[in-house]
Amino acid sequence: MRWALVKVCVAVTTMVALAFLLPLGLMVRETARDRAFSGAERQAAAIGPALAITGDPGELTRALASTQAGAAGMMAVHVPGHTAVADGSGTRVTGLTTIGTPRATSDQILGAAAAGHPVSTGVPGGFAYLEPVAVGSGGIAVVEVFIPNATLSQGVVAAWLVLTGVAVVLVLISVLVADRLGTRIVGSARRLAGAARALGAGDLAVRVPQADDSPPELRDAAAAFNAMADRVVRLVAAERELAADLSHRLRTPLTVLRLNAAALGQGDVAEQTRHAVDQLEREVDQIIHTARGRSQGLIPGDGTGAGTGADDDAAPAPLSCDAAEAIRDRVAFWSALAEDEGRDWRLSGADSDAPPALVPVATADLGAALDSLLGNIFRHTPEGTAFAVDVHRAADAVIVMVSDAGPGIADTEAALRRGHGAGGAGSTGLGLDIVRRVAESTGGEVEVGRSAILGGSEIRIRLQTAPTGTRSPGSRSRRRPAPRVRLVR
């Protein structure tokens, strides 16, 4: 847009300059021509009194030499009734004696004398101004003034250069004005576009400043964008608060479950039930704290896009856990149910004596992802179907593979899309989506395939542990760039 405005102003200013300066240049040329002929007329009038007094060639020669044109050799007088002298001081013309340096032909001189009024005629190198003058003897003399071509165009080149300079200055001024105007418009549009990109990337605190030098239309657009962003913040905060409230309602049935679990007495089943109730209560508490904490951080404080949290400018604490330990815990939990259903299972790469497999994921999130995968095995495969969990450590990632001996997953692409899993009755289709989001939060990925050993499905989770720039060439992670919180300026 900026360059388009500059081009339009250059085109318009150039046309206006040409429309005014071309006629002005032509007028300057005509003025120079008129000035040259007026000067020739004055020079011819200067010799008129001498012709009225005397017709003597000597007197006329001295009078001719006293004029500016005569001294420069650009003036001649053609007097009737005189003949040329032998020393070359005069030139014989039919019926006339010429004094000075003539340029016109005899026919042109006689034609001017016969016309009785001044005549301008073209001669080699310029023009000759011929003015007939009555002399005392009763005849008609012709005064000839030579006007060179250089005199006709004297000052025209300088005038054209000045006019060209004026045109260039006008174009430059228009370019500066257009650039200034374009900067205002483009700057406001870029700020609005940057804010839209930031909002799309998840920066709900971004706002567009309404600069006074912006066009009214863009100020209105900025105000509408800010109102929309505020509305989005309120909607998201309301949804998260609703999630927290709904989770809080689960405390009542959880309390009942805890009381019932306490009444079960001792035994493995009772202990597993109490453990499951404790874990469920912790998960609900975490959901409430997370939802309400994010909701408070979304509320704008002073209209500038800053949140009201106590540590808005502080970087969040990095998440990390030992993947091997978290996987051992969850496999141990599901192993009891596997024994009840007669399922063979295997865990490799996550022994207690193995080195830690640190990944940038919260323990609860990684546990929820593994619970989703193992829960799918128990829910969608027949009893007695074996499964295995393998943990591999790479230079820049930890790879977790969960495989089973079931029928496998028919549509792997639909399984990874949120809410599209064909899990049957009671399935929300969110299990693999939870796993995918946990993997992609580290810059990793999830792959669904078929197990080469067990023959059923195999879910491969890649949890990235190294920065994107230091990954091995074979890594195919699709890391989503983390949105940055910033104010659009």
From TrEMBL:
The keyword Ribosomal protein does not apply. Residues 476-489 have a biased composition (Basic residues). Keywords: ATP-binding, Cell membrane, Hydrolase, Kinase, Magnesium, Manganese, Membrane, Nucleotide-binding, Phosphoprotein, Protein phosphatase, Stress response, Transferase, Transmembrane, Transmembrane helix, Two-component regulatory system, Virulence. Its EC number is 2.7.13.3. It holds the Pfam family HisKA. It is a multi-pass membrane protein. It catalyses: ATP + protein L-histidine = ADP + protein N-phospho-L-histidine. CDD domains: HisKA. GO terms for molecular function: kinase activity. InterPro entries: 2C_sensor_his_kinase, HAMP_dom, HATPase_C_sf, HATPase_dom, His_kinase_dom, HisK_dim/P_dom, HisK_dim/P_sf, Sig_transdc_His_kin-like_C. The chain crosses the membrane at residues 157-178. Its cofactor is Mn(2+); Mg(2+). Residues 245-467 form the Histidine kinase domain. Gene3D superfamilies: 1.10.287.130, Histidine kinase-like ATPase, C-terminal domain. It is found in: Cell membrane. SMART domains: HAMP, HATPase_c, HisKA. Residues 292-316, 464-489 are annotated as: Disordered. Residues 183-237 form the HAMP domain. This is Signal transduction histidine-protein kinase/phosphatase MprB.
